[in-house]
Design a protein that fits this description.
Layout lengths: L2 E5 L1 H9 L7 H10 L4 E5 L9 H10 L3 E6 L3 H10 L3 E4 L19 H13 L3 E6 L3 H9 L4 E5 L1 H5 L3 H20 L3 E5 L7 H7 L3 E6 L1 H10 L1 H13 L1
Parallel strand pairs: 1-2, 1-8, 2-3, 3-4, 4-5, 5-6, 6-7, 7-8
Helix pairs in contact: 2-3, 10-11
The structure holds pyridoxine-5'-phosphate.
Pyridoxine-5'-phosphate (PXP) binds next to strand 8 and helix 10.
Length: 239
């Protein structure tokens, strides 16, 4: 069974655009869980462009299922993550100018800092996942730095413009997932997964025990309501 964790950053983006107190990402998290989500994901960015510290602490108090804290290697954010103690910390690269996370973490070029951060989080009792492109050397490096889990970056698959390119990306992700599984890593996936591309993804990418999906579900919820949007994705994933 693949767990569905929902990223609620997009609700905070809407709230902040109007400099308001609503819509509240905490309300969204409650609705997602009531509709069948297995957990909630958020990304506390260094520039606090969507999720804020107040949200992080309230989510920790409120979320009943799994809580996944996405973060960069920035010591200030790592400190907050250690204080909050989510179930999972997913390390991602972060650039100020990007609209959303644009690619996987370059573990190979940052072995020392990723090892230190992974160890620090694990010593606090937090499981650590690394957000990676399906590149064999990066997946092997995840083992080297002591991570027990990876999240495969599915953005290139989601953004592929032709069926041929999409199939190639799905096969690449499939190979990455098999390698990670053989190396004893738990396999998560996320970025751009939606109601349309899920079947192809699922057909080609084995061993995925958890997905992190945000934009497609929140966007659909605007029109059909959160309960239906979550339920439809959950049903799709359940097969
Ligand atoms: N996983 C990671 C590491 C991400 O950065 C994001 C985007 O915030 C997601 C999953 C979810 O992507 P999307 O919002 O496109 O579903």
């Amino acid at each position: 069974m693949t767990n569905l964790l929902i990223n609620i950053d997009h609700i905070a983006t809407l709230r902040n655009a109007r400099r308001e107190t609503f819509p509240d990402p905490i309300h969204a998290a409650v609705l997602c869980e009531l509709a069948g989500a297995d957990g909630i994901v958020f990304h506390l960015r260094e520039d606090r462009r969507h999720i804020r510290e107040r949200d992080v602490y309230l989510l920790k108090e409120t979320v009943q299922g799994k809580l996944d804290f996405e973060l960069s290697l920035a010591p200030e954010i790592v400190q907050i993550c250690c204080a909050v103690k989510p179930h999972l910390a997913t390390l991602v690269p972060e650039k100020r100018e990007e609209v959303t996370t644009e690619g996987g973490l370059d573990v190979l070029s940052n072995i020392k800092s990723v090892t230190e951060t992974t160890r620090k989080l694990q010593d606090t009792g937090i499981e650590v996942s690394l957000f990676l492109d399906p590149v064999p050397a990066q997946i092997e490096a995840a083992v080297q730095v002591g991570a027990t889990c990876i999240e495969l970056h599915t953005g290139d698959f989601a953004n592929a413009k032709t069926p041929k390119a999409q199939l190639e990306q799905a096969q690449k992700l499939g190979k990455g997932a098999m390698l990670a599984h053989e190396l004893g890593l738990r396999v998560h996936a996320g970025h751009g997964l939606d109601y349309h591309n899920w079947p192809l993804f699922h057909q080609h990418v084995p061993h995925v025990c958890e997905v992190s999906i945000g934009f497609s579900i929140i966007a659909r919820a605007v029109f059909v309501g959160m309960e239906r949007a979550v339920h439809e994705m959950k049903t799709l994933i359940k097969g």
